[in-house]
Amino acid sequence: MSVAVDVFRAFSVLNVLLVLGLGYVWGRNYLQFRSKHTLGLCVFAAFFLFENLLAVYFFVFEPTLSVWIATPDLVPPIAQFAMSSLRVLEFGGLAFMTWITWD
To answer: 1 pLDDT exceeds 60?
Structure first.
C-alpha cells in the first residue's frame, strides 16, 4: 500500500468532516437570514460534501477501484502523489474556510 494513497484516503475523510461543520454553520445562517449568499454557501457545501463522500466510497470501500488505485504497478506513484496533493491542498482551503467561518 502506498503512503500517498493512505494520505489521499485520510484527507478525503478529513475534508468530509470539515464540510459537515461548514454546512452546519452555513445552514443555520441560512435559516436565520434567508439570504442568497448563505443559500449559495449551503449549495456549495452540499456539492462539495457529495464529491468528498464519493471519493471516500470509491477509494476506501469500493472493492475494485480501491485495490487498483493502491497498486503501484497499475497506477504510477506520480499519479498517486498528484491525487494526494490535491486532497491536501483542498484540506488547506477548507481548514482556512472553517477557521474564518467559526471565528
So the answer is: no
Pairwise CA distance, residues 20 & 22, whole Å: 5
pLDDT digit string (tens) for 30-70? 999 999 999 999 999 999 999 999 999 999 999 999 889 88
Place of cell 482551503: 93
Burial category of 13 from C-beta neighbours within 10 Å (exposed 0-12, middle 13-18, buried 19 and up): middle
Tell me the one-letter amino acid at 18. L
Question: Are 13 and 56 in contact, with CB atoms under 8 Å apart?
Answer: yes
CA distances from residue 77 to 13, 54, 103 in whole angstroms, order as listed: 21, 22, 38
